[in-house]
Amino acid sequence: MVRNGHPARTAAAGGAVRDATDDGQADVTTAIAVTSPELVLAPPDRQTPGAVVLAPPGERTLDAAVIDTRQLLERHGFLIALYPASVPVAVKRRLHTVRSVLESDRIALVESELPPLALAVLVRQLRQLSTTDLGPGVLGAAVRLLAHYVHAGAVLGSVARLDRVPVPLTTHARSWVPGSQFAVVTAPEPQLVRLGSGARALKGPDYVTRLTTAAGQLGSTWPGTTLAAQWQVTGVEQAALPGDSPQWWGTGKLVEFAAAIPDISVLYQLITSVQRARCHWCGLELIGDRCVFCSAPLPPPDPGHRPGPQPARRAPTAYRPALDPYEDAGPGPVIQHDQGPAPGPAPDVVPYGPPHGPPYGPT
Predict the structure, then answer these.
(1) Euclidean distance between the first and final Cα of the chain, in Å?
(2) For residue range 310-348, what is the model confidence (pLDDT) as tens digits?
(3) Which of these, 130, 77, 131, 128, lies nearest to 105 by C-alpha position?
(4) Is 273 exposed, middle or buried (0-12, 13-18, 19+ CB in 10 A)?
(5) Considering only 73-87, 141-155, 263-277, 292-306, which range has the smallest mean pLDDT?
(6) How many CB atoms lie within 10 A of CB 169?
(7) 78 touches 28 (CB < 8 A)
(8) Is the pTM of this model over 0.90?
(9) Cα(9)–Cα(151) distance, rounded to whole angstroms?
(10) Which end of the chain is more exposed for a tag (fewer CB within 10 A), N or C?
(11) Burial code of 208-236, b = ≥16 C-beta within 10 A, e = fewer?
């Protein structure tokens, strides 16, 4: 049960976090939803839940979508729906209409500018974090924070229709040369290089990441070999190319890639290191400057007010989704590269199975 939009939180067994009122009833979790099954990558372990796939307007009536969403809220308590900024207007309108009909501030609609594969990687991170003791307000606000730590790009056979990064006129002309390939990074900062002998390296992360690749109609192994070695990734995995990727990148001749932090304990430490606040409207704890559930902005800080200490928390470890929020925090992992010898060839590719998992939670 939820009181005034802010449930009391206590630790519960079995990996769930209990959000309860004074009578101690109702387990409340945060469900993660997406607008396409291609945004649900296979989980790295059996502890990671799946995601709810919201049907588009052409496949589900408005009344049915409202009923489905109401049942999700009754089952889980809160819902965070992520969708790419490039989805059709009808899909965005449906999401906002359902939320308005339900008049619920327990639904967060989060739009992302990341390319499709990178967004799918971020969604998987959020699914992993949903098993920890992070509240729904913090979890929803963490999307914008985590997006800064995802390096998203692609190898393209042509940049003639690319409008995601600035493309010089000379580079446009080189797109017409047979066999030309270009490496593009859109996040966290735009980069564009033409591949070939003497090509400069793409600026990559200065922390440990895992690389996910998805091949379209381009037979390039560059992301899993050269780029993986340059960025010193811990491994390479293959995924199915999202259906929206060719339109997003302006060509079907591509290999999309995304490098992101794979360790949930590092992600948890990253989020919990940010100063938290309480939403003055719905009462949820959050990070950042705006609540993703009720859209209320955080009031400017009082110059004479000094924030109190944040509660100590411990980062999750493998197969330990249930956390005690009152445990003392031990030294956490450091986000850095191993300063060893020069990187060798990239690790073997790890196939990651089908493009999406069960509807929600392990079976």
Answers:
(1) 26
(2) 554 544 544 333 333 333 333 333 333 343 444 444 333
(3) 77
(4) exposed
(5) 292-306
(6) 7
(7) yes
(8) no
(9) 34
(10) C
(11) bbbbbbbbbebebebbbebbbbebbbeeb
Q: Give the span between the Cα atoms of 140 and 137, in whole angstroms.
A: 5
Record the tokens describing residue 102, joined without a space: 């339900």
Are the beta carbons of 276 and 307 closer than 8 angstroms?
no
Strands 107-112 and 151-156: unpaired
Q: Are 345 and 36 in contact (CB under 8 A)?
A: no
Q: Are 233 and 346 in contact (CB under 8 A)?
A: yes
Q: Calculate mean pLDDT across residues 68-95.
A: 95
Residue 332: count of CB within 10 angstroms of its CB: 16
189-207 tens-digit pLDDT: 999 999 987 778 999 999 9
Query: At 16, phi and psi to the nearest 5?
Result: -90, 155
Compute the distance between CA of residue 117 and CA of residue 339 in angstroms, rounded to an integer: 29
C-alpha dist (Å) from residue 246 to 115, 130, 183, 223: 10, 30, 15, 17
Pairing of strands 349-351, 236-238: parallel
d(CA 287, CA 295): 13
Q: Which residues, including other chains, have CB under 8 Å from residue 282's CB and lie 6 or more apart?
A: 4, 5, 6, 105, 137, 291, 293, 294, 296
DSSP class of 317: -
The residues, any chain, with a CB within 8 Å of residue 135's CB and separated by 6 or more, are 9, 284, 285
Query: CA-CA distances (angstroms) from residue 200 to 1, 196, 226?
Result: 56, 9, 12
